[in-house]
């Protein structure tokens, strides 16, 4: 196995976080297996290194998740999950994730409010979002 770091060069990474870099370096002494550490040090920051499109001015984030566009909401959340614990120490990382959430809420808004004829089933969230007109009728009946 190659004993070198295979992360993209610093200037070619799509997002930078000193907190994540420091976290990786600080964990090195905890790994008994240096090959396992090398694997971790290349994989853990991979989402940040290669898939982030962050517009800091607009605070908008898009994460490249693969070829199934319909799964973007789920997959982009899973890709940033390991970094959430670092947000308290890294304001830029925190803002990038807020930008992702902003885009998700915007997409939910478009789906639910701008396309009311669509019926969506989010089983992975444990929710069933019914047709907008059905929801309105149910709410009216309850009042």
What topology emerges from the helices and strands here?
Layout: H1 18-27, H2 34-43, H3 46-50, E1 52-55, E2 60-63, H4 72-80, H5 91-114, E3 120-122, E4 127-129, H6 132-142
Antiparallel strand pairs: 1-2, 3-4
Written account of the structure:
There is one protein chain. By secondary structure, the protein is mainly alpha-helical. The protein has one domain (10-117). 48% of the residues lie in helices and 10% in strands. It contains six helices and four strands; from the N terminus they run αααββααββα. The protein has helices spanning 18-27, 34-43, 46-50, 72-80, 91-114, 132-142, and strands at residues 52-55, 60-63, 120-122, 127-129. The strands form two sheets. A two-stranded antiparallel sheet has the order 1-2. Strands 3-4 form a two-stranded antiparallel ribbon. β1 and β2 (60-63) form a beta hairpin. The longest helix is centred in the C-terminal third of the chain and has 24 residues, at 91-114. The radius of gyration is 20 Å and the shape is elongated.
Note the quaternary state here. Answer: single chain
Helicity range? 40-55%
Q: What's the main sheet like? A: 2 strands, antiparallel
List segments where confidence is low: pLDDT < 50 over at least 5 consecutive residues.
Answer: 121-133
Strand order of the largest sheet: 1-2
Number of domains: 1
**What is the number of helices?**
6
Gyration radius (Cα, Å) is 20 Å
Q: Structural class, judged by helices and strands?
A: mainly alpha
Number of strands: 4
Strand content: 5-15%
Distance between the termini: 67 Å
């Amino acid at each position: 196995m190659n004993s070198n770091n295979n992360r993209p060069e610093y200037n070619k990474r799509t997002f930078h976080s000193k907190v994540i870099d420091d976290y990786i370096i600080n964990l090195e002494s905890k790994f008994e297996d240096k090959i396992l550490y090398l694997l971790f040090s290349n994989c853990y920051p991979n989402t940040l290194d290669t898939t982030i499109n962050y517009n800091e001015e607009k605070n908008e984030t898009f994460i490249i998740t693969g070829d199934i566009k319909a799964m973007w909401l789920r997959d982009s959340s899973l890709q940033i999950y390991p970094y959430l614990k670092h947000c308290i120490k890294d304001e830029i990382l925190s803002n990038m994730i807020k930008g992702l959430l902003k885009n998700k809420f915007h997409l939910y808004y478009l789906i639910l409010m701008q396309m009311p004829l669509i019926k969506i089933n989010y089983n992975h969230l444990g929710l069933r979002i019914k047709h907008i007109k059905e929801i309105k009728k149910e709410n009216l009946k309850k009042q």
